[in-house]
């Protein structure tokens, strides 16, 4: 008998139609029926009790049941779907990332089960399977005689009856008492099993289907539910490729899964049981004596695969996949289409038998992890999280960091080298990092959207007296008075092209004052920036005095920033980040809920010309030229040579170079990265770390896009580029553009 554990999902009702009432029977027929039932009850009672009850007691119980009529017992077995493992794949649909299960089971079709496996289970559990109609009366009599003579106690359950018992004991719609009753030692339970089994055989009229169902529901020990999991658990193969010896061993396990499991027990018991099954197969005519002897001479040949689940079960050779998996799981639990609570949604993932193709590019993910480790080793307290997003879809292609995704304790405590914290995509516990001047994008976009052209110019000097009140170390006369890191390089006349390219603090603070910080903060929210830190969230709710916003003092994550910049690459179309491409059930069907959540959630958030203008300004940063004019000496000219195709982006440093960040994008891919200490913001990474981040991102873009068409960015219009095209633009006279070399930025 099998011993599966766990729960199941909502019930299905195959063959739920009730049988047409039979015509009235003659008194003689009724008498024969009662007599047969009394005999059956006596046998069943003896079998159940191991022949310890006198036959008269069995007859008495059966007579009582006969008085109620055997045919009054429920006959239509409600068959809920068994819990199925869900498999998570990379974007190629072939590379398995991990699996989620509560019971390690994957149902397979009859054609996917080797014939020797079917023959072996019949020989081991029910040699008359193809002859009876659900109840084997001869088997019951034989078991009764054996038990009454003191032989091996046998339950005489057919495979169909065992299947019924497994269904009943795992029915999640039943009460605990009803599930316990499915395995109680009683004549009533046995008769009910027989009733269900007979009806099921009549309705299905297909022995192969009953075998398939049994082999998919049976427990085989070693966390293996169903023959597919068993084939993998013991031999790292699939059920259609099982050899004779392997099939016989697996079939022998169901008699006592825990005792015969050769992975967690000595092999001799499983070996003896396997040989018993091989001999039984000779008896059924499934194999010859010669075939049996050959298989008996073989060792078990175990090649076990450990049954693992969840994100910590990713392959050891691709440990970084765990961080993407963790992001996927967090995303999944937020999808209301999959259940009313996060717990319900996770339960569906563990039981639903889903096949989920994610957006993760395994090659890019592995390379991003390698680049992160190039910046800082695994055991360095500093970290280099990297995120890659596909513009126009929001598909997250990679999430990497120089940590091991593991729950193993760390030598000195803390979060390195092992962690399961979501330092790349962010969470309630991980607000992110200060991304510095990359936030100037939101001021730039707000200005462009409100009629300021790219050549809107200002002359600013350090220190710059702002309109924002401040009593701190950078205050002058009660107002905030910030400076540029390199006055020669960043002071003086700048427009959007040069100010963005050289990352002039004073220029962007002046621009923020003109357009309004509230509009800049709102722009960040529109492009997906989440203010997870409570202090940042409070400032974002009432931002009118938040002068330092444009300098990137708010914490955010590489994923948020990569996706915000990807909006520019997609011509202003914002897409909510997503880790999935498709979701199908065990039959290959796509539910309405799955279709909804797998579809990219996009909207045209920016006017195309606004997005193109911001992209144009970003080309000044990376050593390329805008559509109109020129902007030499951007902060990160080396990126252009690394990528080798049209690219745009922005660099960023937080105060005193505590963090160093960079974001770059092409029409096909956006990548954001940062050097920081997630546990100690005061641990300075230094300006040199930015060069390492730039190098890694440039390398990733180059390699990821190798072989793909070279695409250029659409040009912005002259109207949005020059002040003559907009009456709202500041009317300042043109001035020569500076050509000094960069040294640093804030």
UniProtKB/TrEMBL annotation:
Disordered: region residues: 1-24, 707-746
All copies of domain Glycosyl transferase family, residue ranges: 96-281
UniProt feature coiled coil, ranges: none
Sorted UniProt keywords: Carboxypeptidase, Cell shape, Cell wall biogenesis/degradation, Glycosyltransferase, Hydrolase, Membrane, Multifunctional enzyme, Peptidoglycan synthesis, Protease, Transferase, Transmembrane, Transmembrane helix
GO biological process: cell wall organization; peptidoglycan biosynthetic process; proteolysis; regulation of cell shape
Alphabetical list of SUPFAM superfamilies matching this protein: beta-lactamase/transpeptidase-like, Lysozyme-like
Record's catalysed reaction(s): Preferential cleavage: (Ac)2-L-Lys-D-Ala-|-D-Ala. Also transpeptidation of peptidyl-alanyl moieties that are N-acyl substituents of D-alanine; [GlcNAc-(1->4)-Mur2Ac(oyl-L-Ala-gamma-D-Glu-L-Lys-D-Ala-D-Ala)](n)-di-trans,octa-cis-undecaprenyl diphosphate + beta-D-GlcNAc-(1->4)-Mur2Ac(oyl-L-Ala-gamma-D-Glu-L-Lys-D-Ala-D-Ala)-di-trans,octa-cis-undecaprenyl diphosphate = [GlcNAc-(1->4)-Mur2Ac(oyl-L-Ala-gamma-D-Glu-L-Lys-D-Ala-D-Ala)](n+1)-di-trans,octa-cis-undecaprenyl diphosphate + di-trans,octa-cis-undecaprenyl diphosphate + H(+)
Penicillin-binding protein transpeptidase domain segment(s): 431-667
Molecular function in Gene Ontology: penicillin binding; peptidoglycan glycosyltransferase activity; serine-type D-Ala-D-Ala carboxypeptidase activity
Pfam families named in the record: Transgly (PF00912), Transpeptidase (PF00905)
Gene Ontology cellular component annotations, sorted alphabetically: outer membrane-bounded periplasmic space
Segments traversing the membrane: 34-55
Family of the protein in this entry: In the C-terminal section; belongs to the transpeptidase family.
Name of this chain's protein: Membrane peptidoglycan carboxypeptidase
């Amino acid at each position: 008998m099998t011993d599966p554990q766990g729960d199941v999902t909502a019930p299905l009702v195959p063959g739920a139609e009730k049988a047409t009432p039979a015509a009235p029977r003659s008194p003689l027929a009724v008498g024969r029926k009662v007599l047969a039932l009394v005999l059956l009850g006596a046998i069943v009672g003896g079998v159940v009790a191991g022949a310890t009850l006198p036959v008269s007691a069995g007859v008495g119980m059966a007579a009582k049941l006969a008085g109620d009529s055997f045919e009054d017992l429920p006959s239509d077995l409600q068959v809920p779907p068994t819990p199925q493992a869900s498999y998570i794949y990379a974007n190629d649909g072939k590379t398995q990332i991990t699996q989620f299960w509560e019971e390690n089971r994957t149902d397979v079709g009859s054609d996917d089960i080797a014939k020797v496996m079917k023959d072996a289970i019949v020989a081991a559990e029910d040699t008359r399977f193809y002859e009876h109609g659900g109840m084997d009366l001869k088997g019951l009599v034989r078991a009764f005689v054996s038990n009454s003579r003191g032989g091996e106690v046998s339950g005489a359950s057919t495979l169909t009856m065992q299947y019924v018992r497994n269904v009943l004991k795992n029915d999640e719609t039943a009460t605990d008492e009803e599930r316990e009753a499915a395995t109680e030692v009683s004549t009533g339970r046995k008769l009910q099993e027989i009733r269900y089994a007979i009806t099921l055989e009549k309705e299905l009229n297909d022995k192969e289907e009953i075998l398939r169902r049994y082999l998919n529901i049976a427990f085989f020990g070693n966390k293996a539910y169903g023959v597919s999991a068993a084939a993998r658990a013991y031999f790292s193969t699939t059920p259609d490729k099982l050899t004779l010896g392997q099939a016989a061993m697996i079939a022998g396990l169901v008699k006592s899964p825990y005792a015969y499991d050769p992975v967690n027990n000595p092999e001799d018991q499983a070996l003896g049981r396997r040989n018993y099954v091989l001999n039984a197969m000779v008896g059924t005519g499934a194999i010859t004596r010669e075939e049996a002897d050959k298989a008996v001479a073989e060792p078990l040949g175990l090649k076990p695969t450990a049954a693992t689940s969840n994100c910590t079960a990713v392959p050891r050779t691709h440990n970084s996949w765990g961080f993407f998996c963790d992001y996927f799981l967090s995303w999944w639990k937020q999808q209301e289409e999959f259940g009313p609570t996060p717990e319900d949604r996770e339960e569906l993932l563990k039981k639903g038998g889903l096949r989920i193709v994610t957006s993760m590019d395994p090659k890019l993910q592995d390379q991003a992890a390698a680049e992160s480790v190039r910046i800082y080793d695994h055991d360095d307290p500093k970290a280099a999280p990297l995120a890659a997003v596909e513009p126009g879809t929001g598909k997250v292609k990679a999430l990497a960091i120089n940590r091991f995704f593991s729950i193993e304790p760390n030598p000195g405590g803390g979060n390195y080298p092992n962690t399961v914290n979501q330092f790349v995509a962010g969470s309630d516990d991980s607000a992110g990092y200060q991304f510095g001047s990359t936030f100037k994008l939101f001021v730039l976009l707000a200005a462009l959207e409100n009629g300021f052209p790219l050549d809107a110019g200002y002359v600013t000097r350090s220190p710059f007296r702002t309109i924002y009140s401040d009593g701190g170390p950078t205050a002058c006369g009660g107002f905030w008075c910030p400076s540029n890191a390199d006055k020669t390089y960043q002071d003086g006349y700048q427009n959007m092209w040069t100010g963005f390219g050289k990352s002039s603090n004073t220029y962007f603070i002046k621009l923020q004052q003109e357009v309004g910080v509230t509009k800049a903060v709102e722009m960040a929210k529109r492009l997906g920036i989440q203010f997870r830190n409570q202090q940042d969230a409070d400032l974002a709710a009432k931002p009118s005095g938040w002068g330092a916003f444009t300098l990137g003092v708010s914490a955010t994550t590489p994923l948020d920033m990569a996706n915000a910049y990807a909006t520019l690459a997609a011509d202003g179309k914002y897409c909510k980040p997503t880790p999935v491409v498709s979701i199908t059930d065990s039959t290959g069907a796509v539910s309405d809920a799955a279709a909804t959540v797998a579809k990219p959630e996009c909207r045209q958030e920016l006017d195309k010309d606004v997005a193109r203008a911001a992209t144009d300004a970003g080309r000044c940063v990376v050593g390329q030229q805008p559509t109109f004019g020129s902007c030499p000496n951007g902060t990160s000219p080396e990126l252009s040579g690394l990528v080798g195709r049209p690219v745009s982006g922005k660099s960023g440093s937080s105060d005193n170079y505590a963090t160093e960040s960079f974001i770059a994008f092409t029409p096909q891919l956006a990548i954001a990265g940062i050097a920081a200490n997630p546990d100690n913001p005061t641990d300075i990474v230094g300006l040199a770390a930015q060069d390492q981040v730039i190098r890694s991102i440039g390398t990733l873009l180059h390699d990821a896009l190798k072989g793909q068409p070279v695409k250029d960015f659409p040009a912005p219009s002259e109207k949005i580029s020059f002040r003559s095209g907009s009456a709202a633009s500041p009317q300042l006279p043109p001035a020569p553009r500076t050509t000094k070399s960069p040294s640093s930025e804030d």
